[in-house]
Amino acid sequence: MTDSASTPKPATGRSVLLVVFITVFLDLLGFGLLIPISAFYAESFGARPALITVLGACYSLMQFLFMPFWGRVSDRIGRRPVILISVAVSCVGFLAFGLASSLWMLFAARLLSGFGNANIAAAQAVIADTTTPENRAKGMGLIGAAFGLGFIIGPAIGGTLGQISLNTPAFVSAGLAAVNWVLAWFLLPETRKAGSAAHHTHLSFAGLREVRGQSNVGRLLTLSLLITGAFALMEQVLGLYFERVWVPAAATPALVLAGHKHAAMLTTYAMVAVGVTMTIVHGGLIGPLARRFGEDRLVRAGTVLLVAGLIGVPLAGEIGLFGLEFPVMVLLALGSGMTTPSLTSLLSRSADADHQGSVLGMGQSLSSLGRVLGPMTAGTLFELGIRLPFLIGAALMAVAVWLAWGLHDSGRFRSST
């Protein structure tokens, strides 16, 4: 890395936020492109469902392990070089995924991409460097918006590109990462101030002991793990379930490939329905709903909707109408869209000032852990019974409903604006 990689460039706070938004959006767009096809691409190498979902868990595991790492490195050497290095790593990972000729290469590629795309802490640090405290929440919201757009547009494009070949989306993802690197090289300034250091918290037993006595915190952290894990159980096997239920069995290799492509498109339709609904909730509904009802009530309602949605996926299969999967996806998206931001808000309001950053960091870490544990078990459950991941997920979410009902009075947490 040359000296110019860390040389500050004049820029306004607004222009820096735009560059960070584009950086995170392109990261998530590249990831989203692979969602509809990754299960079937791995299946084409002979992978069983248990191994396919472990492949998905590899990516999340690297993010769980290395988000704090990239944050700490950005404190030492600067935000700009960390983002440039991490985007380059993810580009290599996507390219390797498309060029893979064996299962071990698929695993190595996903580990590499997960390591590179674990740069969210560095992106958040850029926002913290360039915003005032009163505008910081709005700045951090740009990352959420970039996530949402990446998850909507990525699967829609990925499913379409997957009709060309199952590895085409991976090559396009690599191309997007290369574009991302070039944009960051020319447009992203160094924002770390000399002598400044951000605190990047992660899950630790000592940290959990420190905050366990604070009102609602232990319950909310448990909810973060349960809700994310149950949703990940469903997410990782949804395409495989669609293939088993809605795609006719194939008798020849050519028909097998056609079946993979058909299942990838069905998965794309479902993910687009989820993404559009979640964007509407995050973009316009969550604020008014939180002000009117309070975040704790939104968590209760959201977990109930998630139970209904998880049961609804196999129920639509039993009825035999694929069209019923779309209202089920809307239920799942509404539930997730209501619970995720409400949990974060409640955690922030429940922790005392000295532990707020630590508590929010642990919440993020537990959510990441849920995205590891869910996929690691989903494939094995799917092999035992294709409805089992959804039903186990619904059972876990029912526990979340019970926990949510024990949250304290909503009036205490309701927004004053």
Commentary on this structure:
By secondary structure, this protein is mostly helical. It folds into two domains: 12-187, MFS general substrate transporter like domains (Growth Hormone, Chain: A, Up-down Bundle); 201-411, Growth Hormone, Chain: A (Up-down Bundle), CATH 1.20.1250.20. It contains 15 helices and no strands. It has helices at residues 13-34, 38-43, 49-77, 79-99, 103-116, 120-130, 133-161, 168-187, 205-211, 217-246, 253-293, 295-319, 325-350, 356-384, 388-404. Mean pLDDT is 82; it is low at 1-12, 197-201 and 410-417.
What is the compact description of this entry?
This protein has helices spanning 13-34, 38-43, 49-77, 79-99, 103-116, 120-130, 133-161, 168-187, 205-211, 217-246, 253-293, 295-319, 325-350, 356-384, 388-404. The chain is an all-alpha fold and 417 residues long.
